[in-house]
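Re: the multi-chain job from yesterday

Posting the exact lines I submitted so nobody has to dig through the queue logs.
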Amino acid sequence: MEQGYHYKKGLWTVEEDKILMDYIRVNGKGRWNHIAKVTGLQRCGKSCRLRWMNYLSPNVKKGDFSEDEDDLIIRLHNLLGNRWSLIAGRVPGRTDNQVKNHWNTHLSKKLGIKKERNKVGNRSKTLSRECRVEVETLIRPPSDQNLMAPSCESSRGGDIIHQANEGSQELVIGVPDAPERETDGFFVDCCSFWSRNDELNQVSPALVELLAGYPLDMDWPDL
DNA sequence: AAGGATCGCAACCGCAAGTTC
DNA sequence: AGAACTTGCGGTTGCGATCCT
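And the result, structure tokens for all chains:
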């Protein structure tokens, strides 16, 4: 492990950045805990990974967030709640840390939202028939054994469907006027939905409807 | 001008899941 | 199978910069 090493904390210096970048240029990303041993850099693996992911990576976009980015983040947050990595994955060049900070310092104030802890969006919405059919097609398990979406690709989200029954965590897309959600409605696991869209490599009409159709000031019902 | 308050963001922490051996 | 190690996530903190009185 990393026992026996005395790691430095706090802001990174230019020299440390250079050491980390040189290492990654030669060895590529990964094996973060090895970096200190190989380079003598007095930073733990987690710190190295974070520094690369959030700052040094050429994929990281610097500078202010545009209005389009703000709008996208707000809509995604409406759908996904505080699932920053998922949101960031849909905002090109932005990291989960950037999105989280931007939300907490700007967007939540802009929207007059008080900080919530451990809350993931509880959303229900009626979609058009065409949209529902498409979403259902996108998320339906291959076996087609039931209407429940497969569990999240991210293991951490694996309890989403389970929690739905307790009034939950996943995006629930209900059939119009169908109070018995478990029998008449169908559940959409956001992760599966997103991943399927990735596979399709296209912006589906269903996704457009989901993102575009959520009024920001809507009074969302509790589930 | 000074110093206290507030803001914004980089970085840390704890935890959980994935991977390797 | 399970222990050890690695990776990733979201919440939180610390501190420099800026604002305000």
